[in-house]
Amino acid sequence: MVDNGKQFAVITGASSGIGYELARVFGKNGYELLITSDSEKIESAAEELHRLGFAVQTVQSDLATYDGVEKLWNEVQQVGRPVDAIAINAGIGAYGDFARESDLDQELKLIQLNVASVVHLAKRVLRDMVQRNAGRVLITSSVAAVMPGPLSAVYAASKAFELSFAQALRQELKDTNITITALQPGATDTNFFHRAGMDNTKLGSEGKYSNDPADVAEQGFQALMEGKDHVFAASLKTKIEGEVSKFVPSSVTAEMHRKQAERK
């Protein structure tokens, strides 16, 4: 990828859904792209982005492993350009009653991807940004970060970690020109609920109608460019849920979430 004066962005989890739409929005706004996921579908996503006229490089890597994050970072360094912006977006869900139903291996993989890889990749990229005193970091959390998540206990906790982590980094870097923004989408029309085994739940079925991933990405990008600390995206319902949760006891929001997450 030749440095032609355009800015350079890295997007993880970009083969589909919100990640793909984030790549499209960054490309539309003049960024050259490096996109990654653990799936071969990343190549199809790159072809679509090429057809839109964007310069795209791909890395297929499993960020749920230490070596996978290092592989991505090594590829970023091989580009030989500073990372102007990164969207740390890759994540998975896990569903079920924690003590009686859910799968431990899936939950441990979730922690590796949603928590460990976020810390690992942020550590690598932010040290370079601090040296340059410039850069933007978008971390995809969730509206689920602001409430307990019965039947998705580990997932909701991982999103709360991401939100807290983003807010802490923002405070640490307040005297720099580096922007940290948390993207907090609600239920979105992606493959997330199917992969998490939540098709037969109110959340899973309504997710197909609540938020368009393109709208989520647009609002996330705009919040990042405006230097906001977070954004509830994208529907009015999601924004209301996020704001109201600040004033409602966690016992109440937990019960509300459980009713949404129970299988029909």
For the termini, the CA-CA separation is 50 Å
Number of domains: 1
**Bulk shape:** globular
How would you spell out the order of helices and strands? EHEHEHEHEHEHHHEHH
Mean pLDDT, all residues: 89
Beta-strand percent range: 5-15%
CATH superfamily: NAD(P)-binding Rossmann-like Domain
Strands of the widest sheet, in order across it, are 3-2-1-4-5-6-7
Task: Label the CATH architecture.
Answer: 3-Layer(aba) Sandwich
Q: Give the strand tally.
A: 7
Q: Report the CATH topology name.
A: Rossmann fold
Walkthrough of the structure:
The structure is a single chain. The chain is an alpha/beta fold and 264 residues long. The protein has a single domain (8-261), classed as NAD(P)-binding Rossmann-like Domain (Rossmann fold, 3-Layer(aba) Sandwich). The chain has ten helices and seven strands. It has a seven-stranded parallel β-sheet with strand order 3-2-1-4-5-6-7, sandwiched between helices. The longest helix has 29 residues, at 104-132.
Could you name the key traits of this structure?
alpha/beta, about 260 residues, about 50% helix, 10 helices, Rossmann fold
Secondary-structure topology with pairs:
Blueprint: E1 8-12, H1 17-28, E2 32-37, H2 41-51, E3 56-60, H3 66-79, E4 85-88, H4 104-132, E5 135-140, H5 153-172, E6 178-185, H6 192-195, H7 202-210, H8 213-225, E7 230-233, H9 236-244, H10 250-261
Parallel strand pairs: 1-2, 1-4, 2-3, 4-5, 5-6, 6-7
Helix pairs in contact: 1-8, 3-4, 4-5
